[in-house]
Amino acid sequence: MDDRGRTRLQYQISLTGTARSTVTCGEPSRTISVQGAWGFPGGKSSSISSRPLALASALLLFLGHAQGQLSPPRLFFTDLQSGPNTGGEENRGVFISIWGEGFGASRGDSTVTLGGHEVARYVLWGADNAIARDMDTIVIQPGPETTTGDLVVTVAGQPSNPLPFTVRNGQIYFVVQDATNADDSNTGTFDAPFGSIYGARTVMQAGDVVYIRGGQFNQIDPINPGWDAILLLDPENAAVGTESHPVAWVGYPGDPPTLANPEARRGILLATSEPAQSYYMISNMIFSQSLNPVSLAGVGHRVIGNYLHDGAFDDTGAISVDGNCEDYRILGNLLFQNGSPEEKLHHGIYLGGYGANTDIEIGWNQIEDQNGGRAIQLFGHLDGDRIDRVQIHDNLIVGSELNNIVIGGSDGNNDVIGTVEVFNNIIAGAGEPGLRVNDPNGTVPIQNNVLYNNGSSQIFIQRASAGLVTFQNNILHPEGGQTYVEFEPGATSAAFNAQRNLYFNAGPRPDWDTDSLEDNPLFVNVASGDFHLQELSPAIDTGADTGRVWDYEGTIRPQGSIYDIGAFEFSGGVGQPSPTPTDGPSPTASPTSSTSAPTETPTTTNTPDVTPTVTPTPIPEDINRDGRVDVLDQLLLLRQWHRGMND
């Protein structure tokens, strides 16, 4: 038995169920069915002490009631981080979308509070209803009783980790293209909406939010057709946001708009000259067909929960980042089948230099079947370019024609990479090596990822200097004919600072990674892409302590005293509140109006493959959750105590 109450039997028992739901979002529609997968790092090993069992019995008296609790909801991010709590639909303020896990398929008696007050309206609530990664999503309106403070979701009496939200002033506008009374001469209220996106642009100021309800937008922006963009939001033609009062363009909950035109070079363009735009949010929108759907430049932008598909047919990417820019959050987006086959410069998310690209978070996205090039590429173009303080985490990245991730390289005369962290990702099915590092000066921690069935190898070191690639707690699982790691001629294993990785299915582990494992990781179902760990996985309690505090699903790490290897921390159904991440696509049902607060509109029905059995009233002393208190629980507590003495 180990410190999570798992008896090491000689047969496999999987307690992990998977859940599926379908989401159809916009036109052209696409039905998505994705299965999740989760796990993570570790520290010191320890054996069971020979101290008397009587001591273990005495220690039971100090065990708190936290033992045996079910996992609480985990919040990852929101679209808006500030906004008015009045105005808008029913005078209840902005719509706030919240992404995370553990919300449940329907609200029931669950609540959301802001600043300690329950929100006024529950617009959407569901499990596995996000467009990317099957995350859970809630949409609420705060209402006039709420105040600046923490957003907290409480499910079955258990509160989530908090996310901050600031109540502030600002106007809320609406664009409803097909409304019978829609007109750009209207005031843009919910009852008198604008008819076009250009009508909203003319009145918006810093701090304002516009919701675009459905519609197909394919016109080239008439304000400056020479830019071949559907919507120009550069400082010459649109309001400039500030850190305290950003400008937000958001798809209406459950009914996002589509921006698509094969003749458009760009979907949304934020800069046509210097200075570039500042503090814009683009969320819950659908982009297709244009050559560069979202073109970012400037400071403080958030691209949250969008669906980008069947576009990005040039060398700038589906989401491009260029010029001197910082403080970007690219979170919870689905990028699907963008680019053209055999066009190696067609990428998903592309950080392209042309200045300093710094403080950029790429998290919780799903990038699938990228044609031509790479799902994520970081590459410089000019002398002096710099790409630094980048986090690539908790993404599902599968099926790129070339690599799934490339870090480094430049057309200029200098190398560009500073620090780029890659953790908690699932990196699978690339046509070339899954992850490529190509910068001798870059510091690249690669931790707690699953690398599966990628090209000729799972990771390729093209250029990297000694000890600058920290390589910990990763699971490398090649398929037939693939290898674990490749090196460009001249590159060596000295680049790695390697510890506690797990290798399987391509022969012995590399001889340079001496502090590692060579074993079957026992994924729940690798064929269906479920990389959760089975109960007897050797990846459990065998990782290094990386200091990462959550896993792919937001489960706190470690569950026990030692970290797991891989993207998923094994919890066996027992968890703790998740810490707030360092910082949430479109639900399918339209919200309903409400005359009394609070109300709700459930959005999806989650159909689990396996229904876990939950003990109605956990016994605090029943450490291994088997329904009784016996010598096995005493041994388990003794082991926990002994590890605590040695830590």
Entry summary:
Helices cover 5% and strands 30% of the residues.
What does this entry look like structurally?
- There is one protein chain.
- The chain has a domain at 236-508: 3 Solenoid (Pectate Lyase C-like), CATH 2.160.20.
- The protein has 3 helices and 50 strands.
- A hairpin with a 2-residue loop joins strand 7 and strand 8 (117-118).
- It is globular and about 70 Å long.
- The protein starts with 18 loop residues before the first strand and ends with a helix.
List keywords for this structure.
647 residues, mainly beta, Pectate Lyase C-like, 50 strands
Q: What secondary-structure arrangement, pairings included, does this model have?
A:
Layout: E1 19-20, E2 23-24, E3 31-32, H1 53-59, E4 74-78, E5 82-83, E6 96-101, E7 111-114, E8 117-118, E9 121-126, E10 136-141, E11 149-155, E12 158-159, E13 163-167, E14 172-175, H2 197-203, E15 209-212, E16 216-217, E17 229-232, E18 247-251, E19 258-260, E20 266-269, E21 280-283, E22 286-288, E23 292-296, E24 302-304, E25 307-309, E26 319-321, E27 325-331, E28 334-336, E29 349-351, E30 356-363, E31 366-368, E32 376-380, E33 386-393, E34 396-398, E35 405-410, E36 420-423, E37 426-428, E38 435-438, E39 446-447, E40 450-452, E41 457-463, E42 469-472, E43 475-477, E44 483-487, E45 496-499, E46 502-503, E47 517-518, E48 523-525, E49 530-533, E50 607-608, H3 631-646
Parallel strand pairs: 5-13, 14-15, 15-18, 16-19, 17-20, 18-21, 19-22, 20-23, 21-24, 22-25, 23-26, 24-27, 25-28, 26-29, 27-30, 28-31, 29-32, 30-33, 31-34, 32-35, 33-36, 34-37, 35-38, 36-39, 37-40, 38-41, 39-42, 40-43, 41-44, 42-45, 43-46, 46-47
Antiparallel strand pairs: 1-50, 2-3, 4-6, 6-10, 7-8, 7-11, 9-10, 11-12, 11-13, 48-49
